[in-house]
Amino acid sequence: MVKQTSFISVFFLLLCLCGGIYATMAQQANTQNKFDKLVIDAGHGGDKPGAVGLLSKEKDITLAVSLKLGKMITEHLKDVEVYYTRVIDKDVELYKRSQIANKISADLFISIHCNSSANKNPKGSETFALGLTKAAQNLEVAKKENKDILSEANYEENYDGFDPNAPENDILFSLYQNAYMEGSLWFADKVQKQLTVNTPVSNRGVKQANFVVLLKSAMPSVLVEIGFISNKEEEKYLMSEIGQYEIAASIFRAICEYKMHKDNVKIAIPSVASLIPKDVLDKQQQIEEAEKLAKAKEEERIKKENLERAAQQQRDSVMNAQTSGSELIYRVQFASMKTKVSTSDARFSGLEDVWLYEFDGYWKYCAGLFATQKEASNYVQKVRGLGHKDAFVVVFHNGKRISFEQAREFESKKN
Ligand SMILES: [Zn+2]
Known about the structure:
The chain is an alpha/beta fold and about 425 residues long. It has helices spanning about 1-35, 60-75, 95-105, 135-145, 155-160, 170-175, 180-200, 230-240, 240-265, 270-275, 280-325, 375-385, 405-415; strands at about 35-40, 80-85, 110-115, 125-130, 205-210, 220-230, 330-335, 355-360, 360-370, 390-395, 400.
């Protein structure tokens, strides 16, 4: 009996032990497969500013966006741990950045950068996965981002003799990341789509090139060029709080999509607006309203200027005709007085081109200056509306009042 009891006990003990080991193994496998750790790498830092714009440095923008992105993950994607390669303005050697990611067995590595070009026109965002390229444009981007290693000590040793000036020549380079290529490209595609939908930055697409910062990372890894610091308008956006939040929110939403894809889970992905602090949104709204108002004012000013110009042109053409004496001038006569009154008299306010002539001992007051009887007739209504009820059209030739019959004769001769 005693023997039997101890046998059962040992059996149960073994069962529990095995069960325990199995459960631990299963849990380990589960956590290994789950997407729960990521590294955000803010490009450049310290004495390596990266690209320099008119008003800003790449290292500052990449850090600001990285910190905003990390905060969003911590707040809204609680089962994903965030690691940074830097959280302050300091230099971290490029090989150490992927080392940090490997050390913690991160599931995703995101390096954030700004593009630049000697030509100020290029703009837009692009996301890179590691890979060989012969495309000149991609090589240029890689060379720029890789050049930081030239000032690192022992860079040849740390980067296996890689030539940062000829990233197209190193086949070894693309082999490191081959196992993670699919995941990297899948995520890169989501980043570009989110950036395109949620920011004004245009889409330059998903690309591949050899970047040393991604070289030895043992996980899906991308390098996002969030925009051109060399483009005046885009630099302004990259520097703005709203721009940085919109970019961070776009990358955050791509991370949510990646987690759903990897872990086969459903996530209610927060909207971009819900990820941006209210005061930043309010300020942006104020800026947009002020811009709208300024634009409307400017349009009104241009419209008024054009109208004034057209009116002046008309006056000029009539005046020219008058001085050359070969054309007919139509005016609207609205008063007749014994006394001569200044044309700027208050009684004439609202009337244009007030002019007077003497006839039969009376001063006749006219307004308007037109090349056709029709235009003058239209103006009569306005003059009557200003209280001069008896206004009517008169016609002059060479400064002399003539009849409409004479005017018609002149017209027919001219034609
Ligand atoms: Zn960069």
